[in-house]
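Task: encode each sequence below as structure tokens.

Item 1
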Amino acid sequence: MFTTTSHDETIAALRAKLEAAEAAKEADEASLRAAVDKAKRHAADAHVGLVLALYDLLGVDPEHPGSRITRGRLTKVAVDRSEVVRTQRLYRIVAAFAASNPELLEQLQLEDEAGREERRPAPREVPAATSALMNTDEVLLPDVEEDELITA
């Protein structure tokens, strides 16, 4: 039978486990948000261009607009302004294509990886003076006479 002490210890252990899991989830979400923010700053145009091209290629049209009467006139308004629904529809189509032919997907991934290696930037050349310093095990000190040293 449970005693109050063992019951309290079990609850404390479960709370600690839950707090650790929540902290790990928050860290993952923060990492994802940071990656998205970085992608927005550096690759937003390329990403948007790709998604728009995929919308056209795969025929993923925008959601039907809603209508509203403004000042006595019928106005069409976007119901999916952030395109979350349209993007989810696009993802489902692409995922279905990927799942329908795993061999083709693997072949395309291998070709992509080979092309990626071909585009690898060449390593930068290190200036001779810097490489000489990097390869030496000795510490280079200026020539100083012993009587010039400051002693405390």
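Item 2
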Amino acid sequence: MSELVTQRNKFDVAMELTKFHFTKVDSLESEDQLQEAFAKYYTLVEYLENTSPVQLQKLLSEDLVFKIGELEEPNSAF
């Protein structure tokens, strides 16, 4: 049986993070609060999508990088 792979787009991921936020982190009290949370999560997803894994790893603590292993920039073929 073949496995169906579904790729989610930025909007879907931001929606899921927003739902999770108001389910687990905060209570929803206004539409403005919902719009602000969604905008923050969409911006985060956009940033993550457009940033290399090596650059993202620089946001982690040295301890964590040591545990998971340091990434290196791929060599250019030029």
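Check on item 2: Residues 24 and 47 are 23 Å apart (CA to CA). The chain is about 60% helix and 0% strand.
End of task.
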